[in-house]
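Exercise: predict the structure of this protein bound to adenosine-5'-diphosphate.
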Amino acid sequence: MTDINNVKEWLQEVEHPAKGDKNIVELGMVENVEIADGSITVTLAFSKHRDPLAEYLIGSSKAAIIRNAPEGTKVEVKTVIKDEAPKKKPGLDLGFEEIAGVKHIIGIASGKGGVGKSTVSVNLAVALSRLGYKVGLADADVYGPSVPKMTGTEGFMPDAFLDGEKEVIMPLEKYGVKWMSIGYFAKPEQALIWRGPMACNALKQMILQVRWGELDFLLIDMPPGTGDIHISLVHDIPLEGAAIVSTPQDVALADVEKGVNMFRNESVNKPIFGLVENMAWFTPAEHPDEKYYIFGKGGGIRMAEKYSIPLLGQIPIVQSIREGGDNGEPVALSSRPDGLAFISLAEKLAQQCIR
Ligand code: ADP
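Solution:
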């Protein structure tokens, strides 16, 4: 016979990705367990309305019970909100207070993944900071948050505290930039399951709940592509505009078109500050004057002309750029040619925004 303690034991398999992997039983989230003939009903308590991870935790709780309970048991998971302040606005209840001190919020987008959007975002942030701007970067790439690795900040657990009734998250400061990443809250394999509204809410929190302070630029490393998450993000966050990253290949450029159309769509209507052509050519270290156009030549320039957007910069394929990403030391910290390419890019982007 299954008893309440059995169910609680099974529920210990469910870890909360945002709470240092503590399980929901030790976090006191299992409010009630009811066992009737052939059915188990669990009530989970959440302290916030619309916890972005609620759906995930409900699903995982069901899975834990189904895995362990006798075949054919009916499983239901209900939720209850506890410790909620009496009068709360519906929805996520996130205002724009934390971004009130931010002058320019810029999305770094790409039509498809793997073109170097995160590499460009991280190096651009560091380069802007080297130019004397106050900079933050929110890594909103739910499908592959790479800021922790690229900045050597894996394993960082952001501090959160209550300011009045609002929970505020502190960013991490390194290399002169304030960083926040969805990767600080979930393991990469967990991030992959964040879909639809859950991902949208998590992203909004990542940006609107973080105490950014006074910033000249807040860069948002957007998820690749042009789906619903993007539309929701550009609607809910007061983005000033975007920069689009692409490689010069035709297949990547075809997706740039979708990105351009998304930002120029009537309901979004945000300026595109420019195109960044990444992996524009390859120069072997031993032949610094040679350029090999591995992904084709001039694709970025043609695309920029076609859509009347400035070409902000061309970044070559350089081994040190990849290594910098893997080692957590962005090349933009150096004054070698690869670092200076990002300094020029930062200068161009700043010019476009501050015009
Ligand atoms: P995205 O964010 O678009 O998915 P990433 O920034 O994660 O792409 O880059 C994908 C891979 O390509 C990473 O391993 C990165 O180090 C590498 N990479 C990106 N840009 C360059 C470049 N200009 N030169 C060398 N390697 C690069």
